[in-house]
Amino acid sequence: MLENLQATAEAWPFLAQGLWVTIQLTVMGSALSLVLAVVLGLMAGASNKALAIPGRIIIEFFRGTSLVVQLFFIFFVLPQFGVELPGMVVGVLALGLNYGAYSAEVVRGSIASVPQGQWEATTALSMSPAHRMRRVIFPQAWALMIPSLASLMVHLLKGTAIVSVILLRDFTFYLDQLTRQTDTFWAYAAVGLVGYFLLALILTLFMNALEARAKHRLGRGPSLREVLSPTPTNKNSLSTAGGGI
Amino acid sequence: MENQRQLWNWDLAFEALPDILLAFLQVTLLVTVVSTLIAAALGLVWAMIIRLAPQPISGIVKWVVSFIRMTPIVVQLLFAYYTFLMFDSITIGIVVFGIHYSTYMSEVYRAGIDAVPQGQWEATTALSMSTRRTWTAVVIPQALRATVPALGNYAISMFKDTPFLLVIGVVEMVNAAQIFGGNNFRYVEAITLAGIIFLLASYPTSVLIRRLEKRLAYAY
């Protein structure tokens, strides 16, 4: 036990480096997937067939071919056509494209489930389609889609653990090195799984905060400050906490 | 190298196809099917324990399940592979996939059990059914009906996750494609074929599941 602790302390600079790579991949991959999700989700949900059909095809393509295939394709195949990308870019692209396609379905579904009356109201106010989406529909859909996006981001975080197969030195890569000085249980379970679990927990808490903020802006829940304060000041706002509509 | 400039080489594609198909049938499909069965059974066990067991046990199981769910399957595979040296890597893979996905499926079962209308529970009390009979004859049949499509979706997602097995050296479809690519210094055909097979197998299945979902939904 003590030896393991000591070995971990010695390996810590490397583990921290790997953890940083994992965090970067998660944050940049999530950012890319979010952008793609909004673009593809809006495309696939559009009434215009010229937008909807390509959107659908792209979504089904990246959802239907495994993450590892996409990773390998960008890493091994593109260089044969003269496109050579740094490992980090390959990782972010593959993660972003794969989870972006999954998230696009969430975006499309959430937009579709904004109540019909809201759409009709924007027509009554003769809003332009862009204005309607930006000011009325999307803010409401956003509050709906955050929980599903959060679970997809945890999936993305877990998906980053595969990038060592394209020679990226992430957290898992250095865990492998740690097993040479400590036993497997210590390296993979005590350090590795717990490390990833804590990252996932932080990500989940962050997304919960985003959800509280999105709901508060729609007037459907307490503000973030009220949620976080240990002594609730406003009883009225708390009574609506967690209540959807 | 004339070869490198070509977009697609049919000869190489036909050469790669048998390796890839064999790995698909022997490993990818086997792992998907057996792990899905394990996950579906174990998921129900977790859901029932969390729902029925007394406090400390159900609390612990809940934590363990969410811990497994929130940590990468890659690290779990590596951990099991180096810990249980007496088993071969395919067995390890099947068990780890089964356990990992059972944690997702337990959520599906939980939601399915919660969706059984309150009146059904009240009716079993009114008929003074035993707990055992309440579950086996009333709750589980209805809960299962609602959960079948979601379980199917997880089976597809497990199918697409099987390439993670390459971290413990299992030669599933993508690993076979990569090995073929490495031997021929050209990855285009092999990796593209692997992707196409994933698409051909998973897309029609997900369309079927969507239809099933609609049909089962009408039953209520």
TrEMBL record, chain A:
Polar residues composition bias: which ranges? Answer: 230-245
Record's InterPro entries?
Answer: AA_ABC_transptr_permease_3TM (IPR010065), ArtM/GltK/GlnP/TcyL/YhdX-like (IPR043429), MetI-like (IPR000515), MetI-like_sf (IPR035906)
Q: Where are the transmembrane segments?
A: 20-45, 57-79, 85-102, 141-166, 186-210
Keyword tags: Amino-acid transport, Cell membrane, Membrane, Transmembrane, Transmembrane helix, Transport
Q: Could you state a single Gene Ontology molecular function term?
A: transmembrane transporter activity
Residue ranges of the ABC transmembrane type-1 domain?
19-207
User: Where does it reside?
Assistant: Cell membrane
Listed GO CC annotations: ATP-binding cassette (ABC) transporter complex
Q: Family, per the entry?
A: Belongs to the binding-protein-dependent transport system permease family.
The name on file for this protein is: Amino acid ABC transporter membrane protein 1 (PAAT family)
UniProtKB/TrEMBL annotation, chain B:
Per the record, membrane topology reads: Multi-pass membrane protein
Q: Record's GO cellular component, any one?
A: ATP-binding cassette (ABC) transporter complex
Major location, coarse class?
Answer: membrane
Q: Which residues form the ABC transmembrane type-1 domain?
A: 25-209
Which GO-annotated molecular functions does the record name? transmembrane transporter activity
UniProt keyword annotations, A-Z: Amino-acid transport, Cell membrane, Membrane, Transmembrane, Transmembrane helix, Transport
NCBIfam families reported in the protein's UniProt record: ectoine_ehuD, HEQRo_perm_3TM
Q: What is the protein named?
A: Amino acid ABC transporter membrane protein 2 (PAAT family)
Naturally occurring in which organism (per UniProt): Citricoccus muralis
